[in-house]
Amino acid sequence: MNDKLTRWNRVKEVCLSCSACPLASRRTNVVFGEGVLEAPVMFVGEGPGEQEDLQGRPFVGPAGQLLDRMLAAIDLSREKNAIICNIVKCRPPGNRVPTPEEGEKCLPFLRAQVDIVRPRIIVCLGATAVRHIIGPEARITRTRGQWAERKGFWITSTYHPAALLRDTSRKAEAWSDMQSIRAKLVELGLATPASSSR
Ligand code: URA
């Protein structure tokens, strides 16, 4: 087993038995994260929904299907070259937004995941990821499509796919954000310009 996988599995094992916040008591499954440990890009959502809780996998419900299509449009996938995690690993009841305390309790797991994968790019999906990763005052409407380099990571954000399902008028901006991610991958020498498709 390679070193990254060993470390990933070790953190995952701890996460699977975590009871640090009240979300633990109502979960069916912990949703640790999924994808390629060598991935150049990590996408970070908010927290598991109903389907994710049932299956123990991130972004497998309707928002996840849209996310997979958004990734495919820029030649990314969780099977091949991307990794998908969440701010909180247990489903908030009724899909409510996790409280700042729940997010803080869970963040050491995300930090460990970032430390193991060392992605070149981190993409915040939606307001919760933006607040926890970019800063408590940051707002998705201002940060989306923007880039900041921090501690060797290129960080950007776009709308959460569930928000795009609710409000399709944001899709053009999300498309532009995905193109910007593609362009950053090309700029960093991690993708070739020709391999993008819609
Ligand atoms: N929404 C999220 O933020 N994460 C998931 O895993 C699924 C839906």
UniProtKB/TrEMBL annotation:
GO terms for molecular function: 4 iron, 4 sulfur cluster binding; metal ion binding; uracil DNA N-glycosylase activity. Coiled coil: none annotated. GO terms for biological process: DNA repair. Keywords: 4Fe-4S, DNA damage, DNA repair, Hydrolase, Iron, Iron-sulfur, Metal-binding. Gene3D superfamilies: Uracil-DNA glycosylase-like domain. It is an enzyme of class 3 (hydrolase). Transmembrane segments: none annotated. CDD domains: UDG-F4_TTUDGA_SPO1dp_like. The keyword Nucleotidyltransferase does not apply. Its EC number is 3.2.2.27. The keyword Metal-binding applies. It catalyses: Hydrolyzes single-stranded DNA or mismatched double-stranded DNA and polynucleotides, releasing free uracil. It holds the Pfam family UDG. Residues 32-179 form the Uracil-DNA glycosylase-like domain. Belongs to the uracil-DNA glycosylase (UDG) superfamily. Type 4 (UDGa) family. NCBIfam families: UDG_fam4. This is Type-4 uracil-DNA glycosylase. It comes from Desulfoscipio gibsoniae DSM 7213. The lineage of its organism: Bacteria, Bacillati, Bacillota, Clostridia, Eubacteriales.
